[in-house]
Specification:
Order of helices and strands: EEEHEHEEEHEHEHEHEHHHH
Mean pLDDT: 93
CATH architecture: Alpha-Beta Barrel
Number of helices: 10
Helix content: 25-40%
Low-confidence stretches: 1-10
CATH topology: TIM Barrel
Radius of gyration: 18 Å
Shape: globular
Number of domains: 1
CATH superfamily: NADP-dependent oxidoreductase domain
Structural class: alpha/beta
Number of strands: 11
Strand order of the largest sheet: 3-4-5-8-9-10-11
CATH class: Alpha Beta
Distance between the termini: 33 Å
Largest sheet: 7 strands, parallel
Strand content: 5-15%
């Protein structure tokens, strides 16, 4: 089944996830709202406990909603469910105007472990817990956080399809998948969104970006601002940013928004200033020549 996404290459366009869930093309990833601010970051981040300054995290989330963010991303594995509870509390006043995506299918035996677990009964149980923590009767977008290689994908998708048929899930998504896995999953149930690692420096999923565009499936890149040497002093990102009067982060996000009309980046931050900087990327328009320069590996 093919979903319909109505959008254009303009940076202020809207993507309709699953054909009926409109969101602006810059969302917010809440994973980083965990632990102490002086703890490990990046790939070493624990994402194990609720944020030390809960009030600041709530203010940040509410500022995002008030600034026009319409897609908020979390997971049951982030801070063992505390991240979902934080989202629910912060966004309660704005709930009618935003969509919340969460994920199931990963267990956290310790702060350093992220282990796929796709047993259908487990996936359904975790979705029920997410419904409670998010204080909702229906999850807007539920991702399979990771495919469990020990369980048939059809069984994992079947669990999410059952939740959808019960009215507990509006749309189904997949995370960190290839084209063949996506095709296999769609034999069981429609996939409305794919969330993979993708940015200027991490381009392994080009085929998935192209395939999802063809099939009308939203592509939601996580860690969208990581840029590596491509953004170093004298590099193409810095040069194009200077031409645009933008920051390198805004330029990297603008590249994603220009790359394809179905892409919805979800940059995360603890800082209101960085949040506003990221959202301003919607006003950064690349020329085709600038895009081509940035697009070179």
């Amino acid at each position: 089944m093919t979903n319909n996404i109505h959008s254009t290459h303009t940076v202020d366009s809207v993507v309709r996830i699953g054909g009926d869930l409109p969101v602006r093309r810059l969302g917010y990833g809440a994973m980083r709202l965990a632990d102490a601010p002086d703890g490990p970051s990046g790939a070493e981040a624990r994402i194990w406990e609720a944020p030390v300054d809960r009030a600041a995290a709530i203010r940040l989330l509410r500022t995002a909603a008030e600034s026009g963010v319409e897609l908020f991303d979390t997971a049951d594995a982030y801070a063992l469910g505390a991240n979902e509870e934080l989202i629910a509390e912060a966004l309660q006043p704005y709930r009618e105007g935003v969509a919340v995506a969460t994920k199931v299918g990963v267990v956290r035996p310790s702060p350093a472990e992220w282990v796929p677990l796709g047993h259908p009964a487990y996936l359904r149980q975790q979705a029920e817990l997410s419904l409670r923590r998010l204080r909702t009767e229906r999850i807007d977008l539920l991702y399979l956080h990771r495919i469990d290689p020990e369980v048939p994908l059809a069984d994992q998708m079947g669990a999410l399809k059952q939740l959808q048929e019960e009215g507990k899930v509006r749309h189904i998504g997949l995370s960190e998948v290839g084209v063949e896995q996506l095709k296999e999953a769609e034999e069981v149930a429609p996939v409305a969104a794919v969330q993979n690692l993708y940015n200027l420096a991490a381009r392994d999923h080009e085929a998935v970006v192209d395939h999802t565009a063809e099939q009308g499936i939203a592509f939601v890149p996580f860690f969208p601002i990581a840029m590596g040497e491509h953004a170093g002093p004298g590099g193409p990102v810095a040069a194009v940013a200077a031409e645009l009067g933008a920051t390198p982060a805004q330029t990297a996000l603008a590249w994603l928004l220009h790359r394809a009309a179905h892409i919805v980046p979800i940059p995360g931050t603890r800082s209101v200033a960085h949040l506003r900087e990221n959202l301003a990327a919607l006003d950064v328009a690349l020329t085709e020549e600038q895009f081509r320069r940035l697009d070179r590996p």
